Amino acid sequence: GAVVSQHPSWVICKSGTSVKIECRSLDFQATTMFWYRQFPKQSLMLMATSNEGSKATYEQGVEKDKFLINHASLTLSTLTVTSAHPEDSSFYICSARLAGVTGELFFGEGSRLTVL
Amino acid sequence: GENVEQHPSTLSVQEGDSAVIKCTYSDSASNYFPWYKQELGKRPQLIIDIRSNVGEKKDQRIAVTLNKTAKHFSLHITETQPEDSAVYFCAALGPGKSTFGDGTTLTVKP
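The joint structure predicted for all components is written out below.
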């Protein structure tokens, strides 16, 4: 299957700082990428849909000014958690979809964020 | 928007038995239905998928069925093994959207 790389895999930061997470499709172009948040033993909660060259579409309840998403190219989307607080600590994971009406969805490795 | 319901939330079977997980969806525009297996702390891995123009698909011990009229699809695992133990997620995808079920924790007892 296609490869999606996410970096960093884990990060620890101080409260009030910003953290950037990158999601790359390594061997295909992804016009659409998705960002999720996952709490322990829970499902994937869709945060936003990232579209190349346009603004991201955020799910209800997700603060777009706190979770900045940029999809500058067909192979890269970034999620920046701004002014992080301990309650932002979570597992963040991206996915990228192959082109086409029924394109397959592949996941990055995930990023474990811990805010002290 | 799309709503995906997955049942059961936990499932425990004896090694060698079959396991069935069911999902229902609400948006008739959804046209792609993958199933993922996620082990603790790792990324979800695609194990099988089905598209809306197909009713059933099988890959060795794993099969998926889709009933578009009723808007439900199911995962079937036969001859379960301890290494099948994980969390399984269904998903319904449409144009620009992906919605996941809440997951099923499958435990296969040796």
